[in-house]
Amino acid sequence: MIQPTPHPPIRLFTVAAGISTEDLLVNLSETLASANALSCDLAFDLEGPKREELLGLAQLIELAQLLADRVLTVSGQVTR
Fold first, then answer.
1. Which of 4, 28, 37, 51 has its CA 20 to 30 A from that of 66?
2. H/E element holding 29?
3. Is the dihedral of CA 67, 36, 53, 47 positive or negative?
4. pLDDT tens digit string along 27-59?
5. Which pLDDT score is estimated for 72?
6. Strand, coil or helix: 61
7. Taxonomically, which superkingdom (predicted)?
8. Distance, CA of 80 to CA of 25 (rounded, Å)
9. CA 26 to CA 47: how far, in whole Å?
10. 31 phi and psi, to 5 degrees?
11. Domain chopping of the chain, boundaries
């Protein structure tokens, strides 16, 4: 039988053990904010369908950030 991925890719990054859930969520929120800023900046340098695609991606990133922020708010953490 042929495996879909004969040699799984090597993971270059890992998350250190022992980090609290709240710290992970804060880092996630900050990472999403950075990704959103980068995608919006790049989108405004483009035109046409590529701009629309990148703005759509920015909206998905923003949605993920809102979800992470909600979890932080519910857990009593301050966001941004």
1. 51
2. helix 21-43
3. positive
4. 999 999 999 999 999 999 999 999 999 999 999
5. 87
6. helix
7. Bacteria
8. 11
9. 33
10. -65, -45
11. 21-74
**Integer CA distances (angstroms), 53 to 9, 31, 50, in order:** 28, 20, 5
Query: Computed over its alpha carbons, how large is the radius of gyration of the chain?
Result: 17
Question: What pLDDT score was predicted for residue 76?
Answer: 75
Q: How many residues does the chain have?
A: 80
Q: Tokens 């941004």 belong to which residue?
A: 80
For residue 66, give the H/E element and its range: helix 49-74
pTM equals 0.74
Residue type, 67: L
pLDDT value of residue 7: 77
